[in-house]
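User: I'm preparing a small set of examples for a lab meeting where we compare how different chains pack in three dimensions. I only have the primary sequence for this one, and I'd like the structure in token form so I can line it up with the others. Please keep the answer compact; I'll paste it straight into my notes.
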Amino acid sequence: MVANLYSEKSKIEITGSLKEFEVECSVGTGKWKIDMDLAVNGKQKFNIKNDYLFEGAYIGVTVFNNAQQSLMPATQDFIHQLLSNPEFKSALSRPPSI
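Assistant: Understood. Below is the structure token output for the 98-residue chain.
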């Protein structure tokens, strides 16, 4: 979706502030929580928050392994939410102010 879209000449600047990046490991269900405020060209501010669930376990070693293995899909899910967010798409379609 974003492959081959990078350009050194682009005037679009995407900035962000990571508000939360946390993992919860428990018996039933674990969860990665990613919460970020973003802005495009210093304007059009919006928030992306993603809770990604993974299988918990009674044994610590197992639940920690599940947490580690689920970080990549949790991050991919967060990026998918960002790229499919209507506010993000709208902000990218507006020309930057000069």
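A couple of notes for your slides: The first helix runs from residue 60 to 84. The chain has a mean pLDDT of 88.

User: Perfect, thanks.
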